Amino acid sequence: MDMKVLAENLKKLREKHSLTQEALAEALSVTAIMVYMWEAGRLPIDYKMLVRIADFYDVTVESLVGEEPAESPKTSTNDKITFNCKVCGGKLIYSFADITCKCANCGNKWAIAELYPKYSRISTIISKANLILDTRTDMAAADEADLLFRQAMTECGKFNDTIASELISICKQGQAEARKLEIYCRGKHFFDNKSYKSALIELEKVRGFRDADEMIRRCKRQP
Prior knowledge:
By secondary structure, the chain is mainly alpha-helical. Helices cover 59% and strands 5% of the residues. The protein has a three-stranded antiparallel beta sheet. A hairpin with a 4-residue loop joins strand 1 (92-95) and strand 2. Helix 7 (120-135) runs parallel beside helix 9 (162-192), helix 8 packs antiparallel against helix 9 (162-192) and helix 10 (196-203) packs antiparallel against helix 11 (212-221). The radius of gyration is 24 Å and the shape is elongated. It starts with a helix and ends with a helix.
């Protein structure tokens, strides 16, 4: 193993993902001085840690040590997530609905993007889309959220692992919510303009969504 090549690759990968040595150390449950020593080529890394680092960046161990082109993506279909809790070493349970993971033992919680930097952009896009759906009630919001979910799905297509698949599922659910919002807004528009028959047709499609049921009841009371 060429420690100089390994050190250079480690530094390049960390900087590419905009991580400080302290942030990487925390993610790997090691000290910042260890990361510094690795990147200086002054501290050997055992194979188990090399595997963890390769998993973290989604590259092969061979690319880390210079036996393949730098940053070669994994080709294995083994997509098991190997990281444990940074605090107690317990099993992490992933919640893809809010893009976080939580330790089953101690309860500590992190954003998935914090542990896996390659998903930081995707997580930001999905969070932005969800915020739009949670805080706005207009047709433009539905279109904007749908576009963001499509963008996130395109980004997920670059990866072939469990997290990417789950995030794609979340995006599809988000798109379904965006479609509901679009129908709801159309129905509310008819309702506000006292076109109750047209409002009822639209709102019946999204029963249970926001105050659709209340508007449906009021539409049915109209002569």
